[in-house]
Amino acid sequence: xxxxxxxxxxxxxxxxxxxxxxxxxxxxxxxxxxxxxxxxxxxxxxxxxxxxxxxxxxxxxxxxxxxxxxxxxxxxxxxxxxxxxxxxxxxxxxxxxxxxxxxxxxxxxxxxxxxxxxxxxxxxxxxxxxxxxxxxxxxxxxxxxxxxxxxxxxxxxxxxxxxxxxxxxxxxxxxxxxxxxxxxxxxxxxxxxxxxxxxxxxxxxxxxxxxxxxxxxxxxxxxxxxxxxxxxxxxxxxxxxxxxxxxxxxxxxxxxx
Amino acid sequence: xxxxxxxxxxxxxx
Lengths: 257, 14
What we know:
The complex is a heterodimer of chains A (257) and B (14). Chain A has 257 residues and is mainly beta.
């Protein structure tokens, strides 16, 4: 049996909102040691989502037997919207489940809402992702990255990211004209989440689909900062850290034809 | 004129 109780429903609500536009169906893997993990790939096979919610993400967590819960994320999102962000949220499943029980509790108002979501058999490829060497790692405020990704998408369907030891430059080249935004590395000791940190082994110049970057920044409400790891001619990794876990996106780059 | 690459050319299926 699986029983995972979150202190607030907000984490799960934000996680599902962050991934449901990229992947429609996914398997939730549940185990006593790892908590809940997800690996899902979008239909175009360009964007991979990796979620990890350690048992420490939960107020209470037990999973007697490893379980795979196949979910339609649009349906899960409909149910998660029924609860308030500050409600307790508990996920419950039997050992051979055909449904997932989702319970919201508002202890102050003595309100309990229960929903049952039908599970599905989902056949999906699982990819092996080795810990990659990277040419540079950038940590910046998640909101600043989201603004650049959203703004630049209006100019072009591609966004070029150029990193040197003291700045990150985003460049868009579209039919109406061109644009660039430069963010300089800075350390803000009073408010470290406002810092822009660049750890550079080698300068990087990569191009990504603006559509996918806009899917990634849907995770912005989950964390103050995002860490981006870039390597020449390999997928980039975008990480939003959670309390006791992470939501990562791996995005395949675009290349000159 | 840039071409989108696929994750499958970088990561192996498990």
